[in-house]
Amino acid sequence: MEDETAESRNKARLAIMELSNIISLPMALTAVVRLNVPDAIWQDGANTPLSPVQILSRILPSGGGDPDNLQRILRLLTSYGVFTEHLDNSDSPERKYSLTDTGKTLVTDSEGLSFAPYVLQHHQDALMRVWPFMHETVLDPTSEPFVKVHGEEAYSYYRKRPEMVGLMQKAMSGTAAPVMRAILNKYDGFKGVKRLVDVGGSTGDCLRMILQKHPHINEGINLDLPEVVAKAPEIPGVTHVGGDMYKSVPAGDAIFMKWMLNWTDEECKLIMENCYKALPFGGKLIALEPVVPNESDDGLRTRALLGGDIFMMTIYRPKGKHRTEEEFKQLGLSAGFPHFQAFYFDYYHTLLEFQK
Predict the structure, then answer these.
(1) What are 274-299's pLDDT values in tens digits?
(2) Which spans in the chain are helix H?
(3) CA atoms within 13 A on the CB side of 52
């Protein structure tokens, strides 16, 4: 028998207790988003440390709420770096909370965007009911947990529920905007492009940002499902096209896409083959995708990427996945692209160039 008083055994028990209760973390994060706590603390950049009572007075002006329970949630999220806890030196110290850089990602910006809708989108009731069936992706990878629970694939289910589609679009816009700003400040691969196609571009947010940064691009084509582009706003220089990337892609000097190459190998190859056909010799497919590391470790980046991979496996496709850089290179070769480069401008998303 091992010595249960040993430090290693104590740490092991502590670790498994944390993992067993880890669901508390995303649920606490969802709770503060639903309560609008980040915006209440931020107050146009003040970020003044507030007590739970003060926070409640801002989110519930008419009164009410339980400050003790709010404090319990804030303490957990403080331990994971979302809030900073401030204690005074009195005999009965009052706890106050401000936002860390991580917490600030949940604050609504001047364009109405933040990561808050992404948190809500990932933890909707319809998705939460799917997670208990994750193990079945191991037993039978042809059976999708979402289909087992709801009787149809996730996107088909979403399309029948406008509120879910709206939340997803807000989530995608909120997460894409800061990443696109970072990439457009460093990436020069759009030089010389006159006609740019965005495959799966939703309402055209990324295409708008690219054209603003690169005014030499005189035509942007935003391809998405007809029901998606039907609600897209008018954007100068952009034409919204309803279509299906699995059938064909409009011609362009270059093609851009984000988060489109996380489906099955067969689906991704088909998408890329259609892109290859739509490009001239020397044309580029520019894809913004999560790229998982070759080795597994306990780093924040690795955990974030592998967590996203499991989300893809459980909610969308058992064989859909985040890929390594080498897997993307081989996928490109299988679709006809002989040249490949990866640019690591962002910690979560990698810019991939496939050249014809």
Answers:
(1) 999 999 999 999 999 999 999 999 99
(2) 7-20, 24-34, 37-42, 52-59, 67-79, 101-104, 116-122, 125-128, 136-139, 145-150, 154-159, 162-184, 205-213, 226-229, 265-278, 300-311, 325-334
(3) 15
